[in-house]
Amino acid sequence: MGADNLVQLRRWQRWNEIFRTVAIAVFDRPSHSLKALAGLPARRFSRHRVPISAARRLAEMKPPAWVFFHSRLDRSSATRIRSERQGMLSQTLTEQRPELSTITTLTPRARPMQPQPAASPSLLELIQKTLEDGKAEDIVTIELAGKTTIADQMVIASGRSTRQVVALTEHLEEALSRRMRISVEGKAQGDWVLIDASDVIVHLFRPEIRAYYNLEKLWGETLPESEAARQ
After folding, report:
1. H/E run at residue 35
2. CA-CA distance, 85 to 131, in Å (whole number)?
3. Which SS3 state, helix, strand or coil, does residue 136 take?
4. Strands 137-143 and 153-158, bridge-based pairing
């Protein structure tokens, strides 16, 4: 199911029996992951959540067992894509081709040599530097190679307060929007913000929220000592 269905699952009749009857794979949906993971079904069956590294065996597990995939998000409308594709296919194949006389041959001009710009930092380096400049705490980078295909790295960091989490989010939005289109969830609350920057996924937490969810443990990493001390 999609994360949007997990959000509303508590309204389904006898939804508890669904968890106890069949293993469930939940796939992220734009703007739904935080609500889904904080909702009643996810909290009630939190002890039965399976790490993504073990998701291959989900179908063999005895229910209740479920996994949440933080898949790469794409806000494109499937309906619009199908409509545009249909429009392209319906175009006539007998369109009039331009006459040869209308085709202009351009001779490229020699351009003066320009100094080569310095190599821009990698996406991961940009994210790490932006977080460091914003005084983020306990920055952890997790390599996802061999664990999942959703991204190459995951960066987890803490802000001391809701205000700082929001400020860190805004700094990253400003820095990354110059390069690419990103997806941001949870900024309004400022407790847990997820930023999908294509090859890098960023999680920004308030300390107590980070300690509660402990994503490091889920991905086989160690929670920083300062965060563990708050548990």
Report:
1. helix 33-38
2. 41
3. coil
4. antiparallel
What tens digit of pLDDT does each residue of 72-86 get? 666 665 556 666 666
Task: Count CB neighbours of 219 within 10 A.
Answer: 18
CA distance 181 to 198: 8
Contact 14, 37 (CB under 8 A): no
Amino acid, res. 127 = I
Q: Is 209 helix (H, G, I), strand (E, B) or coil?
A: helix
What pLDDT, on the 0 to 100 scale, is given for residue 88?
Answer: 62
Q: 3-state class of 12 per DSSP?
A: coil
CA distance 103 to 97: 11
- On average, the pLDDT of the chain sits at 80
Contacts of 55 (CB under 8 A, 6+ apart): 25, 67, 69
Is the separation of the CB atoms in 49 and 17 below 8 Å? no
Please give the model's pTM, rounded to 2 decimal places: 0.52
